[in-house]
Specification:
9 helices; alpha/beta; single chain; 2 domains; 210 residues; Rossmann fold
Amino acid sequence: MPRLHLFDLDGTLLYGTSAPLEISRQLGLEAETMTLEQEIMSGLIGPPQYAERIYGLWSGLTDPHVTAAFEAAPWMARIREVWAEIRRAGDYCAVISLSPSFFVERLTGWGAHAAFGSRFPAVPFTEPLDPAGVLSSAAKVRIADRLCEQFGVTRADCVAYGDSLSDKDLFGAVPVSVAINADLHLSGLATHAYVGKDLSDAYELVSSAR
């Protein structure tokens, strides 16, 4: 039976940062975004409130800003190589992130079979943000279930990779998980743990176990 590998983005594929922070860096809005990151990590605001406020910050955002952020971001090493190996093994890989869809979806160009993020309007923004399109930790499980149906697998065939509170529900729903540079929210939940900057090393923890 094939396996479905489910990757978080912020703090997992991106080392020590998030897509919103990298996008805001292009606009000179790092400090404001860092404040929002601290608020959501501490539970003072939830994903919808975070998304609404970051949307307000990005009134001047353009597609070249997003491209620059994507290309300059500190990605984990060998992401494309890992996804190529997953494909060679007959398995599937997908990214599910709370970050904006217009950033996350670019990862299909690196070899992900699918990529899901919070639904934002197209850049530059001319339409309002719909809070109903903002993902949550629970939404990651629902999307994983849809992907299982699409690829003909079950939760028992899934491997989750994540680093923080937004991955907690998914880690609890699948049998195999890898905490990558993780915080205390995933303590005791993951079946494997990795600290470092090379996704291949994290993948090797589960690649041989079928």
